[in-house]
Amino acid sequence: MTYVDTSNISAQMFITVLLFLIVIAPLFSLAIMRFFQGKKKAGLTLIGSGIAAYLIFQLIMILVF
Q1: Do the Cβ atoms of 17 and 54 come closer than 8 Å?
Q2: Could you list the residue ranges that cross the membrane (predicted)?
């Protein structure tokens, strides 16, 4: 069994990742729910919002960390 060394993760990076996961994961989850409800436009909007949030997250990670 291997262990992941998390001692090199700064508190700022941890908080940034946590906040974006709190935003990105629910957007995709809600999008799937909207698709099952037959609301394709709302689902696609949520998927687009999730992708946009992910791209912003990647930009922040590149610029700050």
Answers
A1: no
A2: 12-32, 44-64
Instruction: Dump strand ranges (E) for 1-65.
Output: none
The two structure tokens encoding residue 33: 């729910």
Confirm if 30 and 45 have CB atoms less than 8 A apart.
no
Residue 43, H or E segment: helix 40-64
CA-nearest of 46, 2, 53, 4 to 28 is 46
Contact criterion met (CB below 8 Å) for 43 and 32: yes
Render pLDDT for 15-60 as a digit per residue (tens, 0 to 9).
888 988 899 999 999 999 999 999 999 999 999 999 999 899 889 8
